[in-house]
Amino acid sequence: MAKTDLARGVCFALFLSITTLCCATSVAAQESEILVIAHRGASGDRPEHTLAAYELAIEQGADFIEIDLVPTQDGVLVARHENEISGTTDVGERPEFAARLTTRTIDGQEMTGWFTEDFTLAELRTLRATERLPDIRPKNALFDGLYQVPTLTEIITLVRAKEAETGRVIGIYPEIKHPSYFASIGHDVVALLVEQLHAAGYVGEGGPVFIQSFEVEPLKRLNRMTDLPLVQLIEADGVTADDPSRSYDEMVSPSGLAAIAEYADGIGAAIPLLLNETGASTGVSKNAHAAGLVVHGWSARKENAFLPQVLRSSDDDAEAGDLSALIAMLKSAGVDGVFTDDPAKLSPADPGAIKQGDAAP
């Protein structure tokens, strides 16, 4: 089923379904004209991919929460940025798991560490989450050891509870990580995700879900399995893991974007693909819209380490720079949504006051 007929309206129709503005000219409305996608939750304020990070992001007014998904040994989808978990859990401090330290080649890159596919869910639940960027976010590291690795089931349960509490629809934005690698070792993450989403009531083109992947063939397969909106993730450079002959640079050409529109509804593009060095649009957003695709940019973060030089406040990587200026540039470039570690800085101060969407089904 081709997705081009959904066109740019998917993003805006979904956004309007979850945001009823009290006044179209209000400051809050102006601040909410693009989708706010909480990148791994409110990861600027809590360790990423924890229930605490997701809940805080929702409270801060995020329209969607992003969930990176990897499987356990017993086939349960859990939220981690990578299946290698030494940087996001305390596994390296657990002597009972020392023997599981190993080296794997994933998407052509050799990695040494501990991997979720070597742990049952019960074993993984004995670990505790840690801050991935403690030098940049030392305050987040104060929460180390408090939170477990959450399952997709638990995250959906949290979202439903917050929808009932707030009276607004909260979207989820799952990414299937390394699907070809996992398929090669017997884990069909594509089928696992579709089955779980459909069972939870996420169905149809208007479902408050975007499924994303850096790989192409898994998205084409998803296009045959579900009507939920799909997003092709695009790096600033390099090639796709499932087809090294396909470069990301080619993907953002007009012909590449037209090809994406045959199986997906949008692109999730690295910000350097959307803005040039001066902060002006590269034209990718315009070309994507012409192909019928929505455009979500990633990832907007407040710290100097992640901002263009011109927007940094000092030489201190951990100090906050001018995130607002970056968001303004992305809006000017025509971006429909932004992944951000800091949804509070993009969302209205009182999201419940202006986001009066229908309660959870």
Largest beta-sheet details: 9 strands, mixed
Order of helices and strands: HHEHEEEEHHHEHHEHEEEHHEHHEHEH
CATH topology: TIM Barrel
* Beta-strand content estimate: 15-25%
Flag low-confidence runs.
1-32, 349-361
CATH architecture: Alpha-Beta Barrel
CATH class: Alpha Beta
Number of helices: 15
Radius of gyration: 19 Å
Briefly note the structural class of the backbone. alpha/beta
Average pLDDT taken over every residue: 89
* Shape assignment: globular
- Measure the end-to-end span: 26 Å
Pfam families: GDPD (PF03009)
Catalytic activity: a sn-glycero-3-phosphodiester + H2O = an alcohol + sn-glycerol 3-phosphate + H(+)
Keywords: Glycerol metabolism, Hydrolase, Signal
EC number: 3.1.4.46
